[in-house]
Write a structure and sequence with these properties.
Strand order of the largest sheet: 5-6-2-7
Helix content: 55-70%
Radius of gyration: 29 Å
Strand content: 5-15%
Distance between the termini: 32 Å
Structural class: alpha+beta
Number of helices: 11
Shape: elongated
Low-confidence stretches: 1-12, 63-68
Order of helices and strands: HHEHEHEEEEHEHHEHHHH
Number of strands: 8
Amino acid sequence: MSAPVTTPIATSRPPRSAPLTVRIAVWSSRHRWLVATLWLVLTIGVFIGSSGTGGIRTDDATGGDDTTAVTEASLGPERFAASGEEPPSEALYVVVTHPALTVTDPSYQTTVADIARRLQAPTVEIDGALQPAISSLLLPGPQLPGAALISQDRHSVYLVGRLDGDEDETLIRLGPLRAVLTEIPAAHPDFTIQSFNGTLINDDINRLITEDLDGSLKLTIPLTFLILLLAFGTVAAAVVPLVLAFTALLAAFGLLGIYSQVVAPVSSYATQLIVLIGLAVAVDYSLFMVSRFRTERRRGRETLAAIETASGTAGRAVFFSGLAVVVSLAGLLLMDEPLFRSMALGTIAVVVVSVVGSLTFLPAVLAILGRGV
């Protein structure tokens, strides 16, 4: 009985007329261990290097470095400065509401008076002088302008405090006020008391981005793995896209960190866009490549031949898809606004890294794992 005939692993090099994606993928698969090692070293190394220089330097959530912005909001302070006047102060609003009582009720007036006393109590040291944290406080009253601070149903009022000074001085003034704004609702549980201010809103957005959205990855990554496991049926095939996504995110974070330290700080939104777009793009591109590779293997092709076919079909789709995404995102760079510029740079970085990884690291890993995928 004759021995079964097996097809040897392809050893011929792709012709020079072959698409660039094919030549890159075949070279990467032939030098699989070198490419895989270099990819891990470079992506992780960029991230570690960036972290060593201070990591990603972010600006506030509602914008970025306004030194080059040409929006109307950014031109306002410049107009004030050019006219010799001081820019308008930042305001602190405290809204007081009761479902049953009105502003004429003694207990309501007592509550408003206590809130005003608490707000006016904190002091700060500005330029060596001790002064109230709130420069002035506008209270609701029977006559204008106080009457304008009372709602039509007379169940709600708001107090308006003025915080003089620039951004740095505002942060100093808000320091002792943060504790007071937390104590006031606890001291009057029967009332609904809410406070808001531009800087406070900014802090809340930053906290939402850095804590809540980052925490969501603890749920989304395991769910992504389970979906990939159901789609492929093997652990190796499910892990490969996540490894590419994880390393692409590290490299993009590192590149954005270097940019923020050398050129200008970036919006905190940019870091989240890297995670959201990067995870989706890297996993999506991996699905293209791994699915086509598995299809070719089921047809009887050997590992390198399957990689060559996958890179000539799915690989080209990944390349042009990534190119289209990068061109689309580059449109944000035409807007002279740091917020959009930093978001564009971050997402472009993670897409480019994902495409490069799909054409180099992914073929190398598929060649290493072979039948395991």
